[in-house]
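Still learning. Any example?
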Amino acid sequence: MDRSTDYEVLVAAVNWLDEGGPVFLATVASTWGSAPRRPGSMMVIHPDGRFTGSVSGGCVEDELTQQVLKGDFDQDIPRTVEYGVTSDMVQRVGLPCGGRLTLLLERIDSATQLRKLLQAVKSRQRVSRHVSLNTGEVSLQPCSESAASHCDEFHFDQKNLSKVFGPRWRMLLIGAGELSQRVAQLALTLDYAVTLCDSRPEYADGWEIDGTNFITINPAKAVTAIQPDSRTVVLALSHTPVLDDPALAAALQSTAFYVGALGSLKNQQARLRRLQKKGLSDDQLARLHGPVGLPIGSRTPAEIAIAIIAALVAERNQAVQQAVMPESAHA
């Protein structure tokens, strides 16, 4: 089953703790300049040198592992460690373009709490893990719409670090088929909570993507039911207007972050005319991405799925950059 890097790190940590002995968890707390990994990225290190995850794209992982092997982190943790601060360190660990990062290091001796967190992630629930650097206390808090105050995706203020685990985004796929399966598999690795909607019950038997939800209600009703918001993606991939059009009309009238539809440029123009007849405004129609995906010359379902997911990654990163630009313009 395809899972995110967070999931893989948690699984490795629990498995190694079950073997006996501690593990060391490193989390990117903050970055400056051209740091390869974002805040919140993690790796877990076994005392024998094995590790899973990444905090720098390969630049400091070996350095961290060697410090664990030497026992440098056995005391006074959790604590922060900086990399890329001096020219000697930059040359030794290879951070690119003057980049700098701060890591939070933890020694974990029990799998109990991580096992609870892992189970929540398996169930596609969102949980915030909070670490106090002053006391070393670690707590888990469930995330919900009413708990937004402590459920920012990531927060670090030098004294406390909070990171949300579990699906940060939702994706509704309209139309079952091989392409939807490929898209769902990739979306799961990016922490989407994926729902597949196809009103044809016979298609449910062929859907074998574990970790997703398959529903057979009318697609337009499915869109209304999930109440798309700024973290919701709706993709119409059935190539069947009777399924796609009503769902697209509902999605384009919502606040969904991204609405896309499969098809050629000719099909897209025909689709826009049909949606216009349903009463959608020019502004609403302009939000429809079609043909969906980056133009990479894709032909097979796997290639098309990559193009679609790449387009979503680009949109999400652009949104993040625009949101943080006033704060990071100096970086």
Observations:
- Residues 301-328 form the longest helix (28 residues).
- The chain has a mean pLDDT of 86.
